[in-house]
């Protein structure tokens, strides 16, 4: 995964349909090195008919404690239309924090070793990485991450009673836990209900698909993107 994004939209209609077919029988992780040992994948298709994959980090206590301290100290941007919580800027991977780099290397290994899920190597590129901390009363309103093909969330700190992730259209709920990594299609609408405890903390990111798409599909994605922007502006509030 490289660092720059040149504007191409995400999956073609044919590629999306092929991905849905693959998810009728969830694929297993191809473990080709000790680096991935202990990773427990779980792939499923939510009622929206879009793909979601779960992984567990092999050493969550070590990496999560370090990342938690790092994210807590990041400068916060203070305002994001869909996020009513303390969020950093979207380029923290450029700081080269060692613990964050370890996480991203693990993420890249997962992506490149699971082409049956994410497509052939070289077609995906990491674009954005940010950290978010939640206090009691914080939440994230329904939104998606278009035009990115994939979004991922790594759960750094999960106090007892932490809010789950909810896929907004189906209301499918994913319980969160320390060291869990979720990767799902960027167009999948999701939200976080109001937190009842302090301390929930995540690192998130977006991945672009560089596969060319048809003009017709590009127009459809552009319309969905514009509709999403209107929704976020309507529901935005200061934090």
Question: Could you characterize the architecture of this molecule?
Answer:
By secondary structure, this protein is an alpha+beta fold. Helices cover 26% and strands 26% of the residues. It has helices at 13-22, 60-72, 98-112, 115-118, 215-235; strands at residues 42-45, 51-56, 83-84, 86-87, 124-133, 139-143, 150-157, 165-167, 172-174, 180-185, 190-192, 201-209. A 7-stranded antiparallel β-sheet has the order 1-2-10-7-12-5-4. A 5-stranded antiparallel β-sheet has the order 3-6-11-8-9, covered by helices on one side. A hairpin with a 5-residue loop joins strand 1 and strand 2 (51-56).
Strand order of the largest sheet: 1-2-10-7-12-5-4
Instruction: Report the end-to-end length measured between terminal Cα atoms.
Output: 33 Å
Question: What would you report as the Rg, rounded to the nearest angstrom?
Answer: 17 Å
Uncertain regions spanning at least 5 consecutive residues: 1-10, 22-38
CATH level-3 fold name = Jelly Rolls
Biggest sheet: strands, sense, closure? 7 strands, antiparallel
Helix content class:
25-40%
Mean pLDDT: 78
Number of helices: 5
Order of helices and strands: HEEHEEHHEEEEEEEEH
Beta-strand percentage range: 25-35%
DSSP, total strands: 12
Q: Let me know the CATH homologous superfamily.
A: q2cbj1_9rhob like domain
Number of structural units classed as domains? 1
CATH class division: Mainly Beta
Q: Which secondary-structure class do the elements indicate?
A: alpha+beta
Give the overall shape, derived from the CA principal axes: globular
CATH architecture: Sandwich
């Amino acid at each position: 995964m490289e660092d720059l994004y040149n504007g191409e939209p995400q999956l073609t209609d044919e590629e999306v349909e092929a991905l849905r077919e693959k998810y009728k029988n969830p694929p297993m992780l191809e473990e080709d090195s000790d680096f991935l040992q202990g990773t427990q994948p779980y792939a499923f298709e939510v009622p929206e008919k879009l793909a979601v994959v779960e992984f567990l980090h092999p050493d969550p206590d070590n990496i999560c404690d370090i990342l938690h301290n790092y994210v807590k100290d990041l400068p916060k941007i203070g305002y994001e239309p869909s996020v009513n919580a303390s969020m950093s800027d979207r380029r923290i991977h450029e700081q080269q924090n060692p613990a964050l780099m370890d996480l991203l290397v693990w993420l890249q290994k997962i992506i490149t070793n699971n082409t049956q899920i994410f497509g052939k190597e070289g077609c995906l590129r990491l674009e954005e990485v940010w950290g978010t901390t939640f206090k009691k009363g914080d939440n994230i309103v329904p939104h998606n991450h278009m035009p990115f093909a994939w979004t991922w969330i790594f759960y750094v700190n999960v106090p007892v009673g932490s809010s789950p992730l909810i896929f907004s259209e189906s209301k499918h709920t994913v319980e969160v836990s320390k060291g869990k990594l979720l990767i799902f299609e960027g167009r999948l609408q999701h939200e976080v209900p109001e937190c009842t405890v302090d301390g929930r903390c995540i690192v998130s990111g977006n991945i672009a698909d560089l596969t060319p798409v048809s003009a017709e599909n590009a127009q459809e994605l552009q319309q969905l993107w514009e509709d999403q922007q209107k929704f976020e502006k309507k529901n935005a509030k200061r934090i």
